[in-house]
Each structure stands twice: as C-alpha cells, then as structure tokens.
Specification:
The protein is of the alpha+beta class. It has a single domain, classed as Clavaminate synthase-like (Double-stranded beta-helix). Helix content is about 25%, strand content about 25%. The longest helix has 15 residues. The two termini are about 35 Å apart. The structure holds fe (ii) ion (FE2). Fe (ii) ion binds next to loops.
Length: about 290
C-alpha cells in the first residue's frame, strides 16, 4: 500500500504506532491521506508525544467525518460542539466511585463499539490522554476483522447474514438499573444494523457488534443474546487484544467499523481524563452495506 509514514506494530495482528507526525499539522492534503490509508489497513493508530489542543483535535476529527455532538445528543437540544472529556473529574472534584458519573464510565468497560445505537454509526474515535492515574485505566482494543477471519465456520454461518439490534441502555443495564433508566440512555429507538461491514477500500469484512447489541433478528431472546456474547468473547480472546497503557500526550485512533474496545478500571480516588471525539460515517465509508433500509 502507498504510504510514507514510519510505523511499528501495536499488536502482531492489527494496529500500528505512527512515528514522526505532529497531528496539529495534519490537513486534508498534508498527511491525512497517508494516515487515512493506515487507518483503513490497520484499524488502530497510536501517535505518542502529541499536544492536541481542542481546536487541533476537532480539525483532525472533521477530516474523518461529521463530528458527533455528544452534549447535544445527551441533552436532546442544540448546544455548541465541545471535545468530550472521558473523565472522573467534575466541577466538584473527583467523582465518588459509586456515583452515576463513575458508573457510566464503567459502562465503557464492557466490550463495545461506539454509537451503534445512533442513527449514524461512528467511523472513528480519536482519544488523547490529559491526566493519567498511577496505575490501571488502560484502553483495550480487539479487531473484529481478525475475529471474523478466524471465527469457526458454525459461528460465521449464524452471523454472516445477521441483523443485530442495538440499544444504549442494554449496556448500561449491565452496570446499574438506575443508570440504564436515565433519559440520556433511553433517548434513541432501537437500531438494527447488518452484522458484517465490508471495508470499501480493501474489501475485508468485519463484525459490527457491541455491548449495546441485545438481539439478533429472527432469533429467540436467549439464542440471540448467546450468539452476541459468544461472538464478542471470540473476538476479544486475550491473545487478540491490544492493551494501551496511557501516557499523557498519547493519541489513539481506531476504526469503529472494525474494532471492539473497552476501558479498564483504575483507583477511582485518582483523576483520569481522556478527551474524545467521534466522527460519524459517511456513505463512502461503506454505510450502505450495513444499513437496513
Ligand atoms: Fe467507547
């Protein structure tokens, strides 16, 4: 493939660290085409030692696709876009370990793909570390392209033409009923997507599945949930997981179409702040292949 950037593997099967790039300098014509080619090929990209201020972070995300405005989505009204903190720091200090705020962060510790419950799925999450704890707090990634390629034939046969239903409150209910019932968690109608997402650049299939997945079209409740759990467990076998221990200035970018991810716990009396922007898919990202109507 055509790219000129120096890379080293993150995991033997997927992901690369990209060297010698200052992400503040990326524009549509400068570096982005090379970064995008690596993104399509490797599904996860790490850039270390970055100083990605909110404006640069936003400009970079806009190159990938339309920004997800999470404040507007959770509040259900039009508010200005801001980069979203993934953090236990609040205006009142570090949130208590048993607070709804931290419980919601724990919802991100189930294997998931962002935004499968939205009208438009996410293409990418661009995360950067601002404050890291003394231990823990890793972000882990697994490739559902690799998972799909390695999957036993009987599981593949059940998923190949499947339609999977997604609901945000499904994942939150695993953590806390109170959390799952908040208006921000129940705002969106259940959303179906085809399970297999062919990459439009290289034709390789991946599995679109998440902790938000709660049913498989045409299967009984238990059978569908069992298949979802089996598929996620298969894709996230420990040997297929890349675990990223954050350093301040790291920027991790992943392809939501082709990966699962989860956060890991840390000592909650310590602050941990990542800044995140998701961009939505465009038609050119292969959306038609997973869309039902
Ligand atoms: Fe996430």
């Amino acid at each position: 493939m055509a790219h000129s950037l120096k890379t080293t593997p993150l995991h033997p099967k997927f992901g690369v660290a990209v060297h010698g790039v200052d992400l503040r300098e990326v524009t549509a014509s400068h570096l982005y085409p090379d970064i995008r080619a690596l993104f399509e090929e490797h599904s996860a990209l790490l850039f270390t030692g970055q100083d990605l201020d909110p404006d640069s972070h936003t400009r970079l995300a806009e190159l990938f696709g339309p920004l997800e405005n999470r404040s507007a989505m959770s509040q259900g009204r039009d508010v200005a876009f801001e980069v979203s903190p993934v953090s236990n720091e609040t205006d009142d200090g570090v949130a208590a370990a048993d607070s709804l705020h931290v419980l919601n962060l724990q919802g991100n510790m189930l294997w998931h793909t962002d935004s499968t419950f939205l009208p438009l799925p996410a293409l990418v999450n661009i995360l950067t570390a601002r404050v890291v704890p003394s231990s823990g707090g890793a972000t882990e990634l697994a490739s559902t392209r690799i998972g799909w390629a390695e999957m036993p034939d009987d599981m593949r046969a059940r998923l190949k033409d499947a339609i999977i239903w997604h609901r945000l409150s499904n994942s939150r209910a695993e953590i806390s009923a109170e959390l799952a019932n908040l208006p921000a968690m129940t705002r969106w109608p259940d959303r179906p997507w085809r399970a297999i997402w062919p990459n439009p650049v290289n034709g390789r299939d991946s599995l679109l599945i998440a902790s938000h997945s709660f049913a498989v079209e045409g299967m009984g409740h238990d059978e569908g949930r069992r298949l979802i759990a089996e598929a996620i467990a298969f894709c996230t076998r420990p040997e297929n997981v890349y675990s990223h221990q954050w350093q301040v200035g790291d920027v991790l970018i992943w392809d939501e179409r082709a990966t699962l991810h989860r956060g890991r716990p840390w000592p909650y009396e310590e602050a941990r702040t990542l800044m995140s922007i998701c961009s939505s898919v465009r038609d050119s990202d292969g959306l038609a292949a997973v869309r039902i109507v």
